[in-house]
Amino acid sequence: MASNVFRRLRPPAIGALHAVNAFCAFHLFLNYVGSIQLVNGPSMLPTMAVDGEAVIENRLSFWLNPGCLERGDLVTFESPLTPGYLVCKRLLGLPGDIICVDPTGLKVPSSEHVVVPKGHLWLMGDNADFSRDSRDYGPVPLSLVRGTLWARVYPFRHMTIFRNPTSFLV
Amino acid sequence: MRAAGHFFRNAGRFSHSGPKSSWTWKNRFSANNNPAVRWVWSTLFWLPTFTVFTQVGCTIRAVTGDSMQPTLNPDPSRPRDVALFNRWSIVMKRRYERGDVVAFRSPQEHGKLLVKRLVALPGDKVKTLPPYSDVEVVVPEGHGWLEGDASFNSEDSNHFGPVPLALIDSKLTYVVWPPKRLGAITSHTIGTQSERVVALPLS
């Protein structure tokens, strides 16, 4: 009798395990390879709208090679202020760079400079007036970084691959 | 081609009743007939579930170093305690409490995991120990103050300042090895840790 019950329950149980396994594989793909993310907030304004935009986040490059980041990249990282909250800012300074903390002079006098320490990044929103970024919480540990933004996919009219706009004066 | 189709239909199945056939080289190394190959494929097939379980549930890892003496590795001749790292309470519940022994990703070196005690939470006032530049700090929003129990030989918040709580990866709840000290890790600050912290009053 009991063995009969088990025989009947076995196929759906294995089916459920397969579904869980597929879900886990999908979750790992989103975590380590990349995903489509909705962005909102005014801090990246000329680059990204306040809301209603979807972007493709590339996690694979950073995961395989943390040294791939360049000044000017759009970087996604976990907020140092709110654990578990993903934010996107532009990478301004790599370890060793000397950074003017706030050129606008809004938060600190524009004469203040810092050296970005080892294993940290200096990240700032494109819209300095409405952005909480490294000016507030200082250099961000590389361990908080999740990935980079690769392209905007929605709205379809504004589909773009984000190019690194940095140019260097030699 | 048939072998590949067979693999996708049968990979990870618990039943091991493959098609009965005579011994050939093809059968010897196809997924269904060689027990070793079948075991490897089945393990790989279920790997996502195991990985996600260790990421959001819990995992077991060895802890090296003597900065957490006497809580972990008290015996210098046995410097590798094995502990249960509880990720659920941190990753899913986001429960940070003063006194917890936690593992966190190093703010200085990418890819390195450190184990320290969470001594102070956002808003708390901490009297720091020597290497730190200020005598007293208020832990900023979203950050914590982490110290080793053996603070005199520990590279902790007294060196690199407050650490974002987002860097905390898991909470150490049990010592699993050596069996002599098997048991729960207490969530109490030790030594002068609690005396040096003025907790933010609950408003």
From TrEMBL, chain A:
**What are the protein's UniProt keywords?**
Hydrolase, Membrane, Mitochondrion, Mitochondrion inner membrane
* Coiled-coil segments: none
**Which BP terms in the Gene Ontology apply to this protein?**
protein processing involved in protein targeting to mitochondrion; signal peptide processing
A Gene Ontology molecular function term of the record: serine-type endopeptidase activity
Q: What is its main location?
A: mitochondrion
**Peptidase S26 domain: which residues?**
21-106, 112-152
Q: Which InterPro entries match?
A: LexA/Signal_pep-like_sf (IPR036286), Mito_IMP1_subunit (IPR052064), Pept_S26A_signal_pept_1 (IPR000223), Pept_S26A_signal_pept_1_Lys-AS (IPR019757), Peptidase_S26 (IPR019533)
Domain of life where this protein originates? Eukaryota
Q: One Pfam annotation, family name?
A: Peptidase_S26
| One Gene Ontology CC term in the entry | mitochondrial inner membrane peptidase complex
**Active site, UniProt feature:** 43, 89
| Compartment(s) of residence | Mitochondrion inner membrane
Name the protein family.
Belongs to the peptidase S26 family. IMP1 subfamily.
Name of the molecule in the record = LexA/Signal peptidase
Where does this protein come from, organism-wise?
Answer: Lactarius akahatsu
From TrEMBL, chain B:
Q: How does it sit in the membrane?
A: Single-pass membrane protein
User: A Gene Ontology CC term for this entry?
Assistant: mitochondrial inner membrane peptidase complex
Q: Name one Pfam family in it.
A: Peptidase_S26
What GO terms are given for molecular function?
A: serine-type endopeptidase activity
What InterPro entries does UniProt report for this protein, alphabetically? IMP2 (IPR037730), LexA/Signal_pep-like_sf (IPR036286), Pept_S26A_signal_pept_1 (IPR000223), Peptidase_S26 (IPR019533)
The answer to keyword Transmembrane applying to this record is yes
Cited CDD domains: S26_SPase_I
Q: Where in the cell is it found?
A: Mitochondrion inner membrane
Q: What is its main location?
A: mitochondrion
Q: Which GO terms describe its biological process?
A: protein processing involved in protein targeting to mitochondrion; signal peptide processing
Which EC class, in a word? hydrolase
Q: Could you tell me the EC number(s) of this protein?
A: 3.4.21.-
Q: Which family, according to the similarity comment?
A: Belongs to the peptidase S26 family. IMP2 subfamily.
Q: Which PANTHER family match?
A: MITOCHONDRIAL INNER MEMBRANE PROTEASE SUBUNIT 2
The protein, known as: Mitochondrial inner membrane protease subunit
The scientific name of the source species is Lactarius akahatsu
* Species lineage: Eukaryota, Fungi, Dikarya, Basidiomycota, Agaricomycotina
